[in-house]
Amino acid sequence: MFKDRRKLPIMALIGAALVTLFVIACGDDDTAVPRATSTPPPQATAAPVATPTAAPAFLPTPVPPTPKPATGPAKPEGKLTLAVASFKGASGIPFSNGMPGQIFTHFAQEQMVNRELDMSLSGRIAEDWSLQPDAGTVTFNIRKGIQFHDGYGELTAEDVKWSMQSVGQVGASSWRWDAFSIISEFEIPDPYTLIAHLPVSDFFLLLDSVYQSKSLGINVTSKAFHESVSEEEAFGHYVGSGPWDHLETSQGDYMRFQAFENHYNKTPEFATLEVREVPEAGSRLAMVRVGEADVIKVQGNFVGEAQAAGVKVLSGVGGSCSWIQLGGQVLPERPTFNPNTNSDGIPWVGDPNVAGSMENALKVRQALNLAVDRATMVETLFQDLAYPCANPGYYRDHAWQSNEWEDYGYDPVKAKALLVEAGYPNGFDMTLNIDSNDPSESAIGEVYSRWWEENLGLKVARRPVEDIVVRPRTIEEREMGSETPEGWTSGSGARTEPWQAISVFVSTTDSLRGAERAFIDDLFPQISKSFDVSERMAKSLELMNYIRDNYLVVGTVVEPPVFAVSDRVGNYSNRFGGDWNYTEFITRAD
């Protein structure tokens, strides 16, 4: 009954967030790309895509099939234009290639393995691979005959080694650099065999990055190219062996590629590809409507706007599981540990050595979770194209998931009572860092802030900021949220097994995206060293339930990607692991 009585205020909050989303998306320049004024045609039906009903387990010793021969037209034709929010961070050097630009440099610098539509794995640069736990090695057998762009010769194990060493250096821009820094030694017994030596506990960390490498992880590039040009030239040119050959990039404006004909895996149907950087979501949609762009990602109320305008909408798979990180949750031995027992302590951080401190901190975290109505947000803000995610790593229909991980429910009365019991009857002040490049996270941040203010009496300062500004404060001593209460819209890309998303909680991780706990530090490596699927699944459930029961983060949603496409596009589906992967499979309309 309480929820029903408050429905109108809740809808007002959501409505305000929709306005915020629109303002953020459209920016100040309403004339950047004119909207079409013609009468929109009837609503289009989203094209069907293959979606697995249950994610398979992370196989420790996959035996991938040989990819099918390239299909499609003999000669690529026409131009394909993608409009994206940003490709900032792009670099042809693996070491300096950061997000989100890394997503798009992958068009030219391809990955080690393929992720198929049914989520199975198949060979790409690595024709096959195997694990040798007793020896502490992972062996990759490199496909023979792969040619680099620009005449840099055949791709060999030396190129893969050079790329992995580059991205694995401390300080690398890639968010998955730590998956390659763990490699202690490489062996190259012949040009097509690469043997990586690493601790058994890190096998899955490495392979997760390899398996997801179409969007994160390793970009394989030519060692000869980087040894023959200046660092400046290497930074701006993405030499690889992928289906798209990089031509030029104008930072903040465009990237241009051409189809690499007779590619061994898949030749694109389009002759050229241009990636346009257009920060405003409204302008990107307008570009599709007037034919200036062919594929964009649409979020929130822009999905309905695209459908109402008669623009064809295609549903993708996977998507990011996002959450709000509650800063300052570090191990007690860190100098930045500032528990609620201090006069300026963080309300959700408890001191295990003080009676009642941990219990009060848990009540605060629980209150923050119960004070937000994820179900209503999904229905209104995301038009049921997303679903709640209370626990990091949660994906519906995954064989390893618990339905309890989806949502804690909405109970603002209990939330307020918990906050009072914890010693904060009047709430407290906090800052929420909100990713300014992500319209959905911007809207979620606004909605959650208003719910916390309305239901808990908090005073929330919204701080629009890019990830690259906040991330340095989450490394080393993790000072983000240690001096004053501070949160950050964060999350994880799609993971084959849920526990892999918790790698950003481990105290040894490069950038903390969750909460450090001794329990996590103890259990996570046990899972990562388990090659028995049943044991790994059981321990994964134990780990995920611990995170849920302790309310370590404030979960938000899983938002599978939705693409709006022009009349020139026939079909496209991304594949599990990234929103903009496998663009070589975008088809031309008949």
Task: Describe the protein's topology.
Layout: H1 2-5, H2 7-26, E1 79-84, H3 101-105, E2 113-115, E3 121-123, E4 126-132, E5 137-142, H4 157-167, H5 178-181, E6 185-190, E7 193-197, H6 203-211, H7 223-228, H8 231-236, E8 244-250, E9 254-259, E10 272-277, H9 281-289, E11 295-298, H10 301-308, E12 312-315, E13 320-326, H11 357-370, H12 374-380, E14 387-388, H13 412-421, E15 429-435, H14 439-456, E16 459-465, H15 467-470, E17 486-492, H16 518-528, H17 533-549, E18 553-559, E19 562-565
Helix pairs in contact: 2-14, 11-13, 16-17
Description:
- The protein folds into two domains: 265 residues, 3-Layer(aba) Sandwich (D-Maltodextrin-Binding Protein, domain 2); 240 residues, Roll (Dipeptide-binding Protein, domain 3).
- The N terminus is likely disordered.
- The protein is of the alpha+beta class.
- The chain has 17 helices and 19 strands.
- A seven-stranded mixed sheet has the order 8-9-10-1-11-19-12, with helices on one face. It has a six-stranded mixed sheet with strand order 14-18-13-17-15-16. A four-stranded antiparallel sheet has the order 4-5-7-6, with helices on one face.
